[in-house]
Amino acid sequence: MTEFFHSCTTNERKREIEELLNNFAQQTGAWRHCLFFLSHTQNEYVMMYSLTVFENLVNRMWIGVASQDKMEIRSCLPKLLLTQHKSVPYFIRNKLCKVIVDIGRQDWPMFYHDFFTNTLQLIQTPALASLGLIMLKTTSEELACPREDLSVARKDELRKLLMEQVPTVLGLLTGILETYWDKHSITASTPPPSPTSGESCDQYSKLLCQPMASLDSDSHQLCCLVLECLAHLFSWIPLSTSITPTLLASIFHFARFGCDLRTKAKTFIANSSSSNGQHHHPITTSNGDGRTGHPAEMTKAERARLGVLAMTCVNELVSKNCVPMDFEEYLLRMFQQTFFLLQRLTRENNAHTVKTRLQELDESYLEKFTDFLRLFVSVHLRRIESSPQFPIVEFLALLFKYTFNQPTHEGYFACLDIWSIFLDYLTTKIKSRLADRESVLNRYKDALVLLLREVLNRIQFRYNQAQLEELDDETLDDDQQTEWQKYLRQSLEVVAKVMELLPSHAFTTLFPVLQENLDVYMGLQQFIVTTGTSRRLNISAENDCRRLHCSLRDLSSQLQAVGRLAEHFIGEIFAARFNDALAVVERLVEVTCYGSQTSLYDLETAVPSVLKPDLIDVHAQALAALQAYSHWLAQFYSEVHGQSQSQFINLITSAIDACSPLITAKVPEKLLLSACHLMVSLTSTVRPVFLVTLPAVRNIFNLITDNQARRLPQEAHMLVCRALSNTLLLPWPNLPESEQQWQSRSSNHASLLAALTREYRILRGTVNVTPPQPDNGQYLKLVIQQTLPVLRDIVDSISGESTKSRQICYQSLQESVQVSLSLFPVFIQQPDVTDEMLAFFLTLFQALRVQMGVAFTGQIIHTFLSMFTREQLAASILQEGSAGCRVVQKFLKILQVVVQEPGQAFKPFLPSILSLCMEQVYPVVAERSSPDVKAEMFELLYQILHQNWRYFFKTSVLTTVQKGASEDVMENEAQFTAAMQAFGQSFLQSDIHIFKQNVSYLESLNSKHKLYHRKLFRTSMLFHFINVLLQVLLHKSHDLLQEEITLAIYNMASVDFDTFYSAFMPEFLNGCQGVDTNQRAVLARNFKLERDLPSFTQSVQRLVNDLRYYRLCNSSLPTGTIKL
């Protein structure tokens, strides 16, 4: 063993040694040698190896061990544990415990009747209590939730046996905790006064008011073990009266260790006749001053560990949602006790503020406590809230203190989540109780007001600069947001939820603060100094710059808050809150116009690296906030009459005036994109009829269509083109069809698109059918990659609109579509260009296939089918993740759209699409992973079958019902069979996503077309599918999909349960390798003839578990073993 683990041993030699050791372990009677080694060696490697031999023997070969040998092992190993548990390393001791527990798992109570009583006796023997607790914890881990190396019947039996022992075990553990607490606490005749006057300090709280116990290190170790045992027991014991008030009180005593800061340690003389039967020798205190007679005081880490373990127990209980009636009272007591702990955590005194107190506590204790609060609010608040014994409002006040004194950002986020859960609960409650909503709201109003104010203060640099500067605003996380953005977003979500409950209050809190910072921003104009061509901001004192920086950062956050609240001004409450919303929108329009006119983003500043980004950000956020009110503007537009009309026109005109100067390539991109997005929202959501006539919009038209002008960055260019196209294509609200001016809008749209595609359309003449030359090729590529995304975006944006809009769009595009089709064959060898073209065609098919007409669509499909040869497809698919691969995916997506089209128009293409799918794509992907192409190919197959069922099965549903399913008239049988084989083949592969997708496709075909009932499927495929799915469950290769697989097996079996039970199951069991005749009979007997889904599911799970268990046992036994 030492040679094996020596650093100089070669891998070759290690393999030799490993083989020797494995052969040794397989020998009958090897365990006797191992028992000898365990008793006589000091070498840890040898001990570990010997225990592994025992573990293997017990878990895999026990069934073949002679009963005399079993008895010997059952008696020797516990003796060994008792003699050696103190001298061997802890991991050897724990492994030995596990082997003994494994024997109990197999033999208790029939052959090892004193297994559990031995453990209980150990716990009750003071000198061996910790060993007993380790045995108990291991028993809980291995017997309550055993792995699959046991039969289901045995698992159920063990669970039942353990449940019978629960009251005894819990009683014992309670006793230990109480004893140690009482023995070590400093008894006080009267509890100290309660922390807050008027606090209900009932008997449970009185228990908690006692001074803290002071444990020595042995006692600490033992109490930790008890709490670890309890935490594991609570993970599987249901809530019941076995969990007594005394036990709960004891756990809460220990939970206090996490939240009490010790300033001066109290010491006491240990009682010589202590309960664990060991005489204490004088122990030196931890400060090492040499005095004797005092036990060592627990360290801060040890105290925290006790607190963390106790809170883990509490959280295991609180996480259970199923609360029996007789346990509800206990639950209430638990919450009262936690309320007391929360009071202690948030108590202020001369020595500590709440924040310093929380800072000094152990981080994991605080995490556990926050977890508790989250579970309390999310799972139990509805039970407890109405109870007069629980002071809910005071609880919220303490939660408030706890939240806003968290020492870390993570802690603060976790607490904000708790408030979000509470606010959701309150909103739901108020919506469901319209009668007394006011009284419910009034009860919590003060808490909500405080919460809103504090959360708003927390996001302001003015109040919180030091903490906010620490947040990273550069690095993006998995959700593509920086730490600062996440902080702001979570805070604003809470603000928005309070706004929903207290709209007018939230508005009056936020708006004045916004006004204040806006005044600073609007006042910057007076500090602008122009010299020659440069303009600078004449603020240079360091203090002024810092104040300006804080004010601008806060303004930016407040603008986001105002934008986030936009949804609370629309719909039914539009009229009631109209004036507030109008004030906001007018102010936002004023700010955006001011920013664009004074071009603050262009100024030179004293600290350009800080102030310039601030100024750009405020301007961009103001535009984004205004964009958020586009739905309000749309509602205003549909409800305005008379005098308000000029108000509306002014708002829109000013908003466009604010955007227009920013739409140029010279403006920073962040600002340019905000302006473009605002334009898009105004044109798509508000759609004012007068937009086209505004001079600012005309200017933008000219800029985009002028070839000489400097082109905008691609994203901005696309957005502006979409906005301009929207103004011409989208129907105007509140106007009849006759006043929509379609004719002039149509010709304007045609000229817009003609200008946008000028260079692209010229390509048709310049490109021959031969591939372009390299130098010219780059230019052609560039034109294609600049033009097609813009066209695709325009088509995409009207895909859900009226027929008229789509008609005009297609007319304007017609020539470009023809050009694309003629260019397609030229670029077929350049996947990145083909990818762009197919993306365009896919969007056309999805949005405009009716407008394109059958003849032209047919021409396109025909071109594609002839271009994608088998070689072409194979070459593309083999380069996984490449542009070529994406081309094939898009091509299959286009075909999906085609086969879903109702009516007869595209039916002639079905045979060639099917043959492309089954004869060209499938053979290439069948044996490879190619997940992306495979997913699209199977979706295409599914859509072909689902949308074109009559292509395979001529009979109508009616005749099937009248004459029975045996009358199926099939056509194209070979193709149907090939498709089903492809589905079946996919279940033999490891890709879990394809597996899940395909199971759901088969289930869908069954529910819509009775697939499993069809004669061909029933007679020649059904049992093959059930067999494959059962094998997958047995191999545990797709465990995440157990439910879906079992449901599919049930639906297939339910087509003909009689045949399933009488023919399939016996045949399946006979074909099972690795089990003997007797075991097959047991498996068959246990698979009950059930016809409802829950019972059937249980039978399948039992079959899979027991079959795996038998195989495991049989495979581990030496040949010729007699099983007993």
From TrEMBL:
Q: Gene3D superfamilies per the record? A: Leucine-rich Repeat Variant (1.25.10.10)
Q: Which PROSITE patterns match?
A: IMPORTIN_B_NT
- InterPro entries in the cross-refs: ARM-like, ARM-type_fold, Exportin-1/Importin-b-like, Importin-beta_N, XPO6
* Bias kind Polar residues: ranges: 272-289
Where in or outside the cell it occurs: the entry states: Cytoplasm; Nucleus
Q: What is its main location?
A: cytoplasm
Q: Which UniProt keywords apply?
A: Cytoplasm, Nucleus, Protein transport, Transport
Region annotation Disordered: where it falls in the sequence? 272-295
Q: What positions does the domain Importin N-terminal occupy? A: 17-83
- Residues crossing the lipid bilayer are none
| Cellular component terms (Gene Ontology) | cytoplasm; nucleus
What SMART domains does the entry give? IBN_N (SM00913)
Q: Which GO terms describe its molecular function?
A: nuclear export signal receptor activity; small GTPase binding
Which BP terms from GO are recorded? protein export from nucleus
Q: Which domain of life is it from?
A: Eukaryota
Look up keyword Cytoplasm and say if it applies. Answer: yes
Provide the family line: Belongs to the exportin family.
This chain belongs to which protein, by name? Exportin 6
Q: Which organism is it from?
A: Neogobius melanostomus (round goby)
